[in-house]
Amino acid sequence: MKTKIFTLISLAVFAASSCKNLDVAPSDSISTNTLVTTSDGLTNALNGAYALFKDHIEFNGTVDGNNMYLRQFYHLSDFASDDIVCGQVTTDPLYYSFSLGHSPAQGNTRYFWYISYKIITGVNTVISAVEKLPTRDAKTEQLLGECYFLRAFCHFNLVRLFAKPYSVDPNSPGIILRTNLTDEAQKARSTVGEVYESVIADAEKAASLMVQPRGVQYASQEAAWALLSRVNLYKEDNAQAIANANKVINAAKFSLSTKATFPTMFANASTSPETIFCIAFTPVDDYGKFGSIASMIFSDGNSGWGEEYASSSLRGAMAAHPEDVRWSYIVPLSDGAGGVQKRNGIEVYYISKFSFQGGLPNLSSPIMFRLSEMYLNRAEAEAKTGATAAALNDVDMIRKNRGLEASLYNQVVPAGTTALDVVLLEKRIEMAFEGHRTYDVFRNKKTLNKAYWGYHLTGLKETDIDLSKTPTGYPNLTVPYTSPFTIYYIPIDEILSNPNATQNP
What we know:
- The chain has 15 helices and 10 strands.
- By secondary structure, it is mainly alpha-helical.
- β5 and β6 form a beta hairpin.
- α2 runs antiparallel to α5.
- The termini are close together.
């Protein structure tokens, strides 16, 4: 049981931590002491909040190069999925996502919780200042809308990682909602349903305010609609998921990357016509081998650790179509003899979705929302409401831009599958490594199948099994949506400092 681990580590962590480490005051750039009510001052303040998604921020008295919001988000999401295989044992807490050996004291969840609430507190500071202004122009309204969007975005990512899916139990404990500066520090967790209500309210308000977009590296009305489409899809409000996806698609501001441009889309995220919202990195933000998103999943020989690879499960799902341009982001490491090099019995297929901005192997501007997802959100909602032809048409919109013009569904569901199966498979391939897979599996009440060799098989070594066979009878090969390990513990810092916050079982 998870609770046994919690009991064993509580005292040790308490001794090593102090209440001052739980401070979630905003960064200097968005402090109430420096926040000004001019448009430039508010812009600078809000830009400080965006920076927290990519900066290495001090936590527990130190600045750890591995601690960055986006790095931890992708690791906590994707490394728990069947799309990435664990290539070796590591002391980095990312290993717990593979092995399911979760702990309330693991560093990545503790940092992610901390930095998420630091961003939320920061934008709450800006919201409080702006809403006190006697009048507001359109530019100020835009900035206010961006704050509401970021608050919604952070709360939603937290509830996905630390609480059950809405579709499984909306009345189960969610996360702690922080929607104003006067909240009590010791506050109970809201229910999953209450968190979703708050996220939707914030995103809707954001969409109504944002009328002067500043570029795809900042939130926009379309980004708020995209978030609403995603949240409502998770909530199983299919009508609203479709309606908000339609708003983005019909805005005519974005277009799908083609098979010619898709292979370079992620390296050119800020200028791609498909990008709705990305976190902009510059060469100054190139963290190299230490602390970048790419460093664990790609290496050009020395640029990164390259210890995690595209799984055989995902590659098997893609195997029928070698002409699919989405293969361009799965990079085999040659063995020099026409084959693929193996490490620890695992074929090395690097992942390059977070590489090659400006030609740099560890630099990218990660895309948070893009047009393809809107087509796929709409398709999933259509499939669930019986609009099969429409769902397959949306899937085909993606496929014909990925080199699969000769392999369209043309409104025909393949034998032995359903329209929903078709949509979820397409989304798995299209959105691979972008932080969607585990949520798509568990919110649809499915089981994650990891029956392939890798170090997610807890406590094993390569020599413990016959690599020529699919492993059976080992822990964590399959993860049902009912498993407590589909979500993470509430970090120990919160539990020890806040007696009103209950722990996950």
